[in-house]
Design goal:
106 residues
Amino acid sequence: MIRAEFYRDSSDKLKGFRVSGHAGLAEYGQDIACAAVSSAVMLTANTLTDIFKLEAEVRVEENDIYLLAGLDESGEADKLILSLLTHLYFLSDEFPQRIKITFTEV
């Protein structure tokens, strides 16, 4: 199962995420659910850091990525992470019981 944990602050702004695991629909490298999630996660992380130039703590390991945005007065990180969350909700509908989404306050 893919686990997506989203971090939000006390004002309900999304500050980051951790996505880990494997959907288990097919062998590693052949799983379309994993490919869809991985692509969306990397697009989000790269856009936040390379395009918007926002500071973030990012850790990437096999089947595990963690991102926590730094100070973001523009609100761009919140909106971008919200788009990832929305996408993962759609994917969880398409691949039931393969993606679990949770929230943690930071």
